[in-house]
Amino acid sequence: MSELPLLTILMATYNGGKYLIAQLESILAQTYQNWELVIRDDNSTDTTQKIITEYLSKDKRLRQLKFGDLHGTACRNFSQLFDWACQENKQYILFADQDDIWLPDKIELSLKEIKEDEKVYGFTTPLAKYSSFEFIDEEDNPIDRILKLPAELTLRVLLNENYAWGCTMILNRAAVDLIKHIPPESVNHDYYIALVVSAFGRISLINKDLVLYRQHQNNVSGNVENMGFSSRFDRYFRNTSVMIKPLTQNYALVKSFYEHYSDKLSPENKRLISGFLSSYQSGFFNLLKTLFKFGIFKIGLGKNLVYIYTLFLYRKKVIDAIYKSSKK
């Protein structure tokens, strides 16, 4: 019987004391037990460090990492954790947020699914899996909101929006070797990972809820309150200026990815991304033509209509913001 692989869970923490114990307990209660949890705290000022210290003494599979000098955002924290894991040649990597709850079979099923993909596509193929999840509120109550997730993520889908939440992902060693480093300016580590793996390997869905994804006022990303009709209506038709920041971040991340990997991309993917970036700069109608030419769309007719509307309003302001940031 072959030895069970050691899975490495990377957790970035910052002032997460309110929910951290529930998350740690859910990891300890996993059906698959051959894992290590590596925590990097970003100078918390609440009870987070006290909780970490307590759990370090409870279980030797937990360790606290003092690595790198980047601080200030969740992406920088995860970037440093990822650098360490790559340097240490970790075989399989998962990411844990500090405020979620993992369902008992998350690790077991994630490993099973990615190993099945490795049998089909080979161990040298960069692979990632991501799962569906259930929203919960601050008191662990379920929130009646379901997101439609694609069975597989392609660049055409990802150029507009990411559907792979980091807390649901598992990567194999080939994916880690390919990525090597997550640029800290990427804003979202999971989005960058999804772009890279989709371009050179395969990233696909585990169609089962494996995480209880907590919603509260301090969520870094993925807040369910922003996904409802009334919230979207407010952003798109009343307070439209709030869309400039996410559009700018999206463009900057895709641009960063392209700059890092353009020499390795297939001719088809190179045309796709360069066409998207250049037409974004040249004008709305050129961009619209590119979206239809390559099939670069979000999931759902309504979301696409609203997306095109926001591009019509703010495309130039996004490019201006990118230009200004490049001059700093």
Automatic annotation (TrEMBL):
Stored CDD domains: GT_2_like_d (cd04196)
Signal peptide positions on this chain: none
Gene3D superfamilies assigned to the protein according to its UniProt record, in alphabetical order: Spore Coat Polysaccharide Biosynthesis Protein SpsA, Chain A (3.90.550.10)
Domain Glycosyltransferase 2-like per the UniProt entry, residue ranges: 8-174
UniProt-listed InterPro entries: Glyco_trans_2-like (IPR001173), Glycosyltransf_2 (IPR050834), Nucleotide-diphossugar_trans (IPR029044)
PANTHER family per the UniProt record, alphabetical: GLYCOSYLTRANSFERASE, GLYCOSYLTRANSFERASE 2-LIKE DOMAIN-CONTAINING PROTEIN
Name of the protein in its database record: Glycosyltransferase family 2 protein
Organism the protein comes from: Pedobacter rhodius
